[in-house]
TrEMBL record:
It holds the Pfam family Fungal_trans_2. Keywords: Nucleus. This is Sterol uptake control protein 2. GO terms for molecular function: DNA-binding transcription activator activity, RNA polymerase II-specific. InterPro entries: Fun_TF, Sterol_Uptake_Regulator.
Length: 288
């Protein structure tokens, strides 16, 4: 816990106003809920594995032990989420997603589209937890500091990413996937505008992933071409934040390779733009 409160917590902050929240409030909550405590310790151990390459195996093993304890404890709470434990449950779910994301970036085996879908399903567990206490968590809960900086509506001039979205709209799709994939396309644009808005936050980049319907995630797992192309374009948004988030560094590249390996040859020309952005490390928010 010392490492978290002196070092690892800093990697979760993108606004100075959140220092107190992550350094003090979250650890204080964790000491009353063992699943969150072990989730934090698992995250901290992986951060040490990242910082100390010569000790990677040691810290990774320790992280897995903490994850195992946390999962066992958390599983017993899933059917009994109350006003008293909704905040730690939500925080733990966030740590689980970060750990899963890191596992994708560091996997020694090929990452498959279904692995990406599975990680998004974990993130969507946050929605289920929030639904148990509608309204409370955003107003007077201890997590309120995370939500006080709403994205301000702003007109964003036409840019490279938006041009790509409009080009994708012109693709003719099979009737059975049209509605779901068109909605996912709209969601990509919404997420882009969120991360490009003034006073935005890193967390907004996951808006697309957390709002995708189960049917779209199944399309990704089944290698539906248009769904995979959208996933590759989404990876360009995440790429914007990889430089200062150790647990997602390389995520976009792994996702892109997964898409390239699964996509039909006839669809691969649609990957040229995301390939250029990701391999060149371009920030699509700043592209004209």
């Amino acid at each position: 816990m010392h490492h978290f409160s002196t070092s690892a917590y800093l990697t979760l902050i993108d606004h100075s106003s959140l220092h107190q929240f992550w350094q003090v409030t979250v650890p204080a909550i964790a000491f009353s809920f063992d699943f969150l405590l072990h989730g934090i310790l698992a995250f901290s151990a992986l951060h040490l594995a990242h910082l100390r390459p010569n000790e990677t195996d040691e810290w990774t093993i320790l992280s897995r032990r903490h994850q195992s304890v946390a999962v066992t404890s958390f599983s017993s709470r899933l059917n009994d989420i109350t006003n008293e434990n909704v905040d730690p449950c939500l925080l733990y779910s966030c740590f689980v997603f970060m750990l899963e994301t890191y596992s994708i970036t560091t996997s020694s085996t090929a990452v498959l589209p279904r692995d990406i879908s599975r990680s998004f399903i974990l993130l969507q567990g946050v929605k289920g937890i929030l639904s148990t206490a509608p309204g409370r968590w955003s107003s007077d809960g201890v997590l309120a500091p995370l939500l006080r900086r709403a994205v301000e509506p702003v007109f964003i001039p036409s840019k490279g990413f938006k041009a790509q979205i409009e080009a994708l709209r012109e693709i003719a799709l099979p009737s059975e996937v049209t509605l779901i994939c068109r909605n996912a396309l709209d969601g990509l644009l919404t997420t882009f505008e969120a991360i490009a808005a003034p006073r935005s936050s890193y967390a907004y980049v996951w808006l697309w992933a957390i709002t995708l319907p189960q049917a779209f995630l199944e399309f990704v797992s089944e290698h539906e071409p248009f769904a995979l192309v959208l996933l590759a374009h989404y990876a360009t948004l995440v790429r914007c934040f990889e430089h200062d988030r150790w647990y997602i560094q390389g995520w976009s590249a792994r996702v892109l390779v997964a898409v390239q390996d699964a996509l039909l040859e006839s669809w691969k020309p649609w990957l040229e733009w995301p390939v250029q952005c990701i391999q060149s490390g371009l920030d699509v928010r700043k592209m004209e």
